[in-house]
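Q: what does this look like with zinc ion bound?
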Amino acid sequence: MSSAAQTIKERLGIAEVVGAYIKIEKTGANYKARCPFHNEKTPSFFISPARNNYYCFGCGAKGDIFTFVEEFEKIDFLGALKILAEKAGVELAQFQHDRSKESEFDKFRSILETATVFYEEQLHGNSSAKFALDYLLERGLTDETIKTWRIGLASNEWRNLGDYLRSKNISNVEMEKVGLIKQTGTSVYDRFRERIMFPLFDSSGRVVGYSGRYIKFPKAKMPSSSNSSSASSNSTSSGSASSTSAEQSTDESKEPPKYLNSPDGPLFNKSEILYGYHKAKEGIRKFGYAVLVEGQFDMLMCHQAGFNNTVATSGTSLTALHLEKIKRLTDNTMIVYDADKAGLKASLRAWELALSLGMDVKIASLPKGEDPASLILEDKEKFKNCLKNAKHIIDFYLDILDGEGKTGRELWKAVEVEVLPYVLAIESSIDRAHFINRISMRTDIQEADLRAELERLMIKNRSLNSGGSGNTGVGNGDGGASGTGKGAVHNETVSDHSIIKGIDDLSDSDKKTLDRLIGLILWLRDSANESKAEEVLKRSGTFLDEISKKYFDERISSSPTELSFEAEVLFAGSTKLDHDIEELLLEIEERSLKQTLSVLMNNLNKMEKLQKKDEAMEILKECQNVSLKLSEVQRKKKLYG
Ligand SMILES: [Zn+2]
């Protein structure tokens, strides 16, 4: 066993394995990434190809390719071994299937795999299914796409799949658990009937559920009427729309729902599943952004046309879980907006969420009456142009306001209600400042007024949140909130102390000092003193205030060679390098604490003016903590001076 693991480890690099799951970035001899195991805004997750392992300075997660896959996929060692063996092309003869030893999840997966093959055969190995295949081709899918995405067909019979799976010794209980059958009383029948079956995959490409699109079977070709009549008497009690008998389904008004999804279960969670994600991971990293569409056909047509960074939500609106999945790979999302849809409001909450997660959200709007699939079918270039012309969500709204020709009081009101909530949701204070400037330029509203209004909104939200109303408050609060339900993300943004402080608030001497630290780290890395560099990085990460950290991260990621050179000049000949480093770190810690203190004091003043006693008290406590730390640092600094 260990030799198989050894062979796999030799064939697969840590960067290759981790890089298939999350966005990684080269930094010197190593790679860094935002840690997938804890929530963080700036990368502290490091991958070392030389050591063939990873380590997170934030949460302490560490290990090799196997532990990474185990933790990421939430599977056991054996599961990780299987996945990686396949990736490495290593045969695992000694792990041949033994049903009794399989974990429950493995069993569920293998049931779905069997069902998927069955559905595929129904579509391809059956001349009476030609109408379904024709339909798919008509919609623009190629044979290759149909096969690659394992599209299948569920017949119009009541127990077609169930009977087949029972013949394979799979129990009704198991089938029901994975959502393939329904049981009501003594009646057992297939959940999916008369449907094109789109398998939904987990991030490793294993089938975990289905989305079934209703397709009307030609009447003459319906083989069995005995089956359906026996089931229909019982099934009416289930009350679901899918329990119509074969006869009833010919009645137009009783047509079953267009799409039917697997119910949430042990493997499947529709608020998390992104259709196409397992194949889009590569493309998303390559293009540097994810394209988000709504429908199965849209996603398939996008991939077919080469936009293989596309994913789709499946039968639910965009949720925080979806966004977090995307965020592992990129910060940039492009939402393809179908101008024909019920309206912007439906997605409003999701877009705010994306912004509050620190993502850059662009909107590509399609011509009226088109969806991605239809537009690609018409002309791929037209779709490409829509993506090219995508606008940041705030510009998108400003354009709408422009089009409405509002002025004066009306314009101000519209900006307040429709645009500022998005600015408030933006995670980065620098980006917020940027958009305030942009809005001011386009509306002629003074920046100072916009800032003041933003602060008012922020305070309003905060008091709403602390009041425990459950309403996260950002935005105008109506509609579109369905399915997201992760208000905590907002609270974080809202309680941000430095809403309008940005890098520009750093003094030149603050920046210079930070530059020295950055140079030091870069130089340590260049001179193969990785462990020291990482130690310094880790330590500075513990005390940098938000604004300094922002500056630090931006500077260090561009690795300015002059800084490293400067550090070399400063430190290379030093006989007391550790002492010098310590001194520099203390200097920066002192500045950071002062910076934090000034932001806190500012807020304290505000709260006192607003007579928010409780909040003022809390901030005061924080101030005291920070000043205690500050005097401690100053004491230490004297010892080094
Ligand atoms: Zn971590």
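Residues 97-101, 224-252, 467-500 have pLDDT under 50 and may be disordered. Residues 292-500 form a domain with the Dna Topoisomerase Vi A Subunit; Chain: A, domain 2 fold (CATH 3.40.1360.10).
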